[in-house]
Amino acid sequence: MGRKExxxxxxxxxxxxxxxxxxxxxxxxxxxxxxxxxxxxWGDDDTRxxxxxxxxxxxxxxxxxxxxxxxxxxxxxIADDAPRWAGRRAPFHxxxxxxxxxxxxxxxxxxxxxxxxTDDYMDMALQCSTQWDGLGHWAYNDVLYNGYxxxxxxxxxxxxxxxxxxxxxxxxxxxxxxxxxxxGVDAVAPSTPITAEMVDAALEAQGVEVRSGDxxxxxxxHLGRWYGLTDxxxxxxxxxxxxxxxxxxxxxAHTHNIAALAIDTMGVEVxxxxxxxxxxxxxxxxxLVDLGLTLGELWWLEDLAQECAGDGRYEFLLSAPPLxxxxxxxxxxxxxxxx
Length: 339
Prior knowledge:
Blueprint: E1 20-21, E2 27-28, H1 56-63, E3 71-73, E4 92-97, H2 99-104, E5 119-123, E6 131-133, E7 153-154, E8 157-158, E9 171-178, H3 179-183, E10 193-194, H4 196-206, E11 215-219, H5 222-226, H6 232-240, E12 244-245, H7 249-256, E13 260-263, H8 282-291, E14 294-297, H9 302-311, E15 315-319, E16 330-332, E17 336-338
Parallel strand pairs: 9-11, 10-12, 11-13, 13-14
Antiparallel strand pairs: 1-2, 3-17, 4-5, 6-14, 6-16, 7-8, 9-15, 15-17
């Protein structure tokens, strides 16, 4: 749609789209999924997708999983040396008032003698670290989940599909699929597609089943490799040869009614993508656009895997709501697993 011309990034020629957009911000006469999808499943105005599967009953059952009170953060440090997509700049953490300022003498002391405070700020992409990809993050042929139009995401934010709608979501049962643990390796080999069959085999070996409303976390071990890489060439290759989910995981997710899928890689799906592909990044498009399935990336799962192997339990209470940022299309977060 819109400006398109082979070999040109921004051609002068423009062909207007053939679809229209109605008063609800829905595309009329445009893309609609021909296969598996959740459009209209929770109503024509739904903006939460598979997060709807985490019902109060699912949350209550998940709370009963806590036995030891062991709390684990699944988040990366927000720091310069953490992996991030090249199109997103490094987070910028800065201070506007420090302890050394106080020692040198602050003008505030004229008002409140002896009082010291410190203050800091963060400037970063909301998908620059451990994150959720919200349902407004990816569109196909200008169409987002449930038929919403991508053109309504402006510099003022996402009017229809924003992560703030999920601010009380993603608290429930988490299930870890530890692929390296199952395969007996430190990490899944780069560019290996992780199929639904492989996931089922790992779950069976771990003695855990997936239920409706679960959040499924897949460990590949690829993120653990990052911190052992010291040169730029090796770190560049880390992004271009990545183990990840095969396309058949979309049907698996739909069949099992999972609420969210998170992984310890940069982009969920295998890189390079499997071929032939009906569209680029097929897992992202099918999950976010067709199913309304929220995706998590860059989750730190190494410590959780050790705990699960230690007690033989690969299920836990997971608390991972996004930040309450109206209009945002993604969110950095600090997911917490409790066993």
